[in-house]
């Protein structure tokens, strides 16, 4: 009997050793790469498949640095997920990347996504690209904004805010071609990106006046957003360290979300924006401050880092802020079919026509 067992073991081992080696795994496919450097202004390439990329400014624009505009962007790729772009730097020819939804789903609404990164990187993975399929399910078209950064020699309060406002009017200029409702164009910013979305809600009139030359192909097209998202924001124009601008009577509704005491400084900036709008009784300003949470990138007690964007955040309620945004967005009528006047527009019309107190 022992001999039979020994013989069986030998035969099994022989069979195992006789098995052919598995073929090596193939390399990842369709990994995005920056466009090549040429004698022309750098041509940005899509971050996600199917993206339509349009530079914000024409070649030779005074907004651009002529000595830098040919330089290629630099991608920081995920080490664990092949093909995933975590962040981008060296952005000298800023652009928008449009992602449509199917006609059967299309609400006509479009959301411009302004990623954070402390003006040092543009974190397009978690705070832009991940939102494209999320909003697709609700019939909301998306646009990924690649704006210029402080680390590359630009002023966030001037150059990056100009990029955001230019993006809004560029999207509005292509509304017909892209099957968009020109009255449902908004921008959502995260952290440093919220330092673009918040100013866009109050500085659009000034921007349009400065950029109304007949030689400008977008002259006469409004840069006013129809709604804004301000998510764990950096300082807004209403921060105590700044001189607050006048609030336009037709400033758009805003959705604000932050982690509360766990992200104290960003919560203070969120409250400053909310308080400024509340002081003038602007309609449809909604804010969610969560009792548990930290700012994306902050170190946690277990040595890991807090994540942002759409991530679950270990079952924290803050991990569902995007669903609260959808509740707000639906309530204001942005998820109706294109061409239907939104509740947001109706409420604002009543507010604008109200006699001054």
Number of strands: 10
Q: Which quaternary structure do these chains form?
A: single chain
First-to-last CA distance: 102 Å
Major sheet, described briefly?
A: 8 strands, mixed
Strand content: 5-15%
Shape summary: globular
* Proper CATH architecture: 3-Layer(aba) Sandwich
* CATH homologous superfamily (4th level) name: Alpha/Beta hydrolase fold, catalytic domain
Query: Which strand order spans the largest sheet, edge to edge or round the barrel?
Result: 1-4-6-5-7-8-9-10
Give the C-level CATH assignment: Alpha Beta
CATH-defined fold name: Rossmann fold
Number of helices: 9
Number of domains: 1
Structural class by sheet pairing and helices:
alpha/beta
Q: Give helix and strand order, one letter per element, not per position.
A: HEEEEEHHEHEHHEEHEHH
Q: What is the alpha-carbon Rg in Å?
A: 24 Å
């Amino acid at each position: 009997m022992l001999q039979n067992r020994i013989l069986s073991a030998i035969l099994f081992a022989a069979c195992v050793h006789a098995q052919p080696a598995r073929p090596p795994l193939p390399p990842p496919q369709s990994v995005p790469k920056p466009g090549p450097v040429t004698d022309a202004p750098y041509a940005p390439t899509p971050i996600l498949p199917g993206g339509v990329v349009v530079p914000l400014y024409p070649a030779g624009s005074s907004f651009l640095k002529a000595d830098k505009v040919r330089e290629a962007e630099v991608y920081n790729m995920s080490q664990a997920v092949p093909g995933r772009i975590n962040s981008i730097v060296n952005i000298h020819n800023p652009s928008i990347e449009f992602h449509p939804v199917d006609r059967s789903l299309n609400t006509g609404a479009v959301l411009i996504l302004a990623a954070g990164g402390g003006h040092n990187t543009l974190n397009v993975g978690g705070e832009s690209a991940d939102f494209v399929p999320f909003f697709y399910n609700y019939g909301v078209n998306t646009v990924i904004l690649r704006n210029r950064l402080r680390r590359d020699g630009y002023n966030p309060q001037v150059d990056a805010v100009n990029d955001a406002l230019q993006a809004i009017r560029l999207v509005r200029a292509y509304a017909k071609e892209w099957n968009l409702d020109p009255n449902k164009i908004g921008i959502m910013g995260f952290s440093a990106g919220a330092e673009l979305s918040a100013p866009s809600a109050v500085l659009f009139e000034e921007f349009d006046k400065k950029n109304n030359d007949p030689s400008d192909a977008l002259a006469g097209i409004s840069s006013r957003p129809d709604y804004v998202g301000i998510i764990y924001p950096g300082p807004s124009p209403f921060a105590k360290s700044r001189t607050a601008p006048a609030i336009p009577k037709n400033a758009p509704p805003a959705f604000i979300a932050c982690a509360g005491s766990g992200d104290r400084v960003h919560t203070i900036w969120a409250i400053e924006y909310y308080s400024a709008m509340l002081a003038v009784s602007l309609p449809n300003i909604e804010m969610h401050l969560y009792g548990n949470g930290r700012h994306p990138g902050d170190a946690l007690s277990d040595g890991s880092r807090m994540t942002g964007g759409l991530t679950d955040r270990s079952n924290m309620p803050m991990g569902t802020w995007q669903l609260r945004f959808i509740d707000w967005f639906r309530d204001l009528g942005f998820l109706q079919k294109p061409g239907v006047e939104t509740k947001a527009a109706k409420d604002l019309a009543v507010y604008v026509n109200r006699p001054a107190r």
